[in-house]
From TrEMBL:
Gene3D superfamilies: 1.20.58.1040, Glycosidases (3.20.20.80)
Topology in the lipid bilayer: Lipid-anchor; GPI-anchor
GO terms for cellular component: plasma membrane; side of membrane
Biological source species: Canna indica
Organism superkingdom: Eukaryota
Cellular localization per UniProt: Cell membrane
Signal peptide: 1-22
Protein name per its UniProtKB record: glucan endo-1,3-beta-D-glucosidase
Top enzyme category: hydrolase
Lineage: Eukaryota, Viridiplantae, Streptophyta, Embryophyta, Tracheophyta
GO molecular function annotation: glucan endo-1,3-beta-D-glucosidase activity
Amino acid sequence: MGVSRFLALFALVALCSSLVEGLGVNWGTMATHPLPPKIVVQLLKDNGIKKVKIFDADSITMSALAGSDIEVMVAIPNNMLQIMNDYDAAKDWVKRNVTRYHFQGGVNIKYVAVGNEPFLASYNGSFLNVTFPALKNIQNALNDAGVGDTIKATVPLNADVYNSPEDNSVPSAGRFRSDISDLMTDIVHFLNQSGAPFTVNIYPFLSLYLNPNFPVEFAFFDGTSNPVLDNGIQYTNVFDANFDTLISALKAVGLGNLPIIVGEVGWPTDGDRNGNAAYAEKFYNGLLKRLSVNQGTPLRPNQYIEVYLFSLIDEDAKSIAPGNFERHWGILKYDGQPKYNMDLSGQGQSIMLVPAKDVKYLPNKWCVFDPNGGGNISTVGDQITYACTFSDCTALGYGSTCNGLDANGKASYAFNMYYQVQNHRDLSCNFQGLATETTQDPSTANCNFTIQIATSSTSAFLPFVPLLTVFVSVFFALLF
Ligand SMILES: *[C@@H]1O[C@H](CO)[C@@H](O)[C@H](O)[C@H]1NC(C)=O
Ligand SMILES: *[C@@H]1O[C@H](CO)[C@@H](O)[C@H](O)[C@H]1NC(C)=O
Ligand SMILES: *[C@@H]1O[C@H](CO)[C@@H](O)[C@H](O)[C@H]1NC(C)=O
Ligand SMILES: *[C@@H]1O[C@H](CO)[C@@H](O)[C@H](O)[C@H]1NC(C)=O
Ligand SMILES: *[C@@H]1O[C@H](CO)[C@@H](O)[C@H](O)[C@H]1NC(C)=O
Ligand SMILES: CC(=O)N[C@H]1CO[C@H](CO)[C@@H](O)[C@@H]1O
């Protein structure tokens, strides 16, 4: 092949480099200052993202999606599952949150998520009895409304609904968790009957986080010198191993071919020593490459896998009960700015996502610790605890981006986070004489002192659920 033909071919390939087929993202809104839905929808379009999974069916979000042709998975939150056990309530929900948009609203709804990881062991079985009846009612209501052929109800489940025995932890030994195996069997048979996929959330980061002995390289896709051997198959990463454990669990109940969607997969960038931009970039780079060539997994090779990245944007009001990293899952920062290189075509090019456009910020003012402001220095710890109870200080923890600040810097960071959450409201930068406003950016090379997004609403309300007091005291006892 001549050089010019080669170049022409190269140019053609570059031109065709489009998004990984069918790639989706999770769009969560548990933020003190969520980006306006219109800006988010434009962001999705600018990046060629055609599928989105949301955690409710909020009408402002739905209106922003109308006419975009983006495929949507709407959701029923766990706390509404009980209500959906009543068929009339389910019919009403479908009418108000699905068919309305489907027939008149121009929103391309594809799935209804019934609950979100309702069988997590940490929920102590609270949703065990209500999830399956809700699933059946919602699918039946979709069928009754005449949209059941195109819109399917599914239950996004955490990967802890299946496992393999500890003494033989290979994917082929995968089974549904013993305490819920009958329930899971019923659910998957129902999914098969209705033509719906199984939706599973897979988190290699959590494997690493929860198990200090977990081999780091097994969390990524770059190979390992120590693969898991299973009936002649070599597993070199936990994503494949986890996905195939599910396939084995499905096989064991006679449904080895049930379609599977990965409802969430991703890597956080802060709040833990393994949650950082370098690892996130490495993880997504490996994942997107595989998805782009439809590599599949050893038990389902050469197949397209429908995947929703978790998540689109950081959420500073998420519960940190699972860990400080919870607020840093975004492939974009709170304001829609990229964090690291990411090539959604899966070709590993050194490019970044297209940032959010037309984002309005509060004025360039920060709040910092002022030792000469007349306040009582020995109360600074209490003031920090207060600031961090009502804002996000997770970047200060061990292994996080702002952990390297000195004690004064940490106080400034906490005060600024509170001041930003409060929209620079009067007296929100006082802390009994220990803080002062400044127009000089206190950010350091590693630690970003943010300026929040200007919200359109004038009521500076506080959607913040105060963190568990116990957690806050423990956290800050560690800092000081
Ligand atoms: C469903 O629609 C109703 C009415 O529009 C709305 O109040 C409710 O929040 C929606 N449900 C969810 C889960 O978003
Ligand atoms: C589950 O049980 C544990 C231990 O009894 C308790 O600490 C926790 O708060 C419970 N969680 C929920 C969601 O009820
Ligand atoms: C679920 O149902 C079982 C059997 O009827 C019952 O023993 C259990 O208490 C119920 N669980 C909840 C959380 O309601
Ligand atoms: C400063 O605060 C400490 C701790 O609350 C208190 O014991 C002390 O009396 C205060 N000092 C002044 C000058 O108010
Ligand atoms: C901090 O974040 C903002 C918003 O994303 C960005 O514009 C700025 O460059 C960052 N500053 C530093 C020092 O990283
Ligand atoms: C994998 C599997 O068993 N799929 C079944 C799902 O249900 C349909 C009937 O609705 C069967 O034809 C499939 O074989």
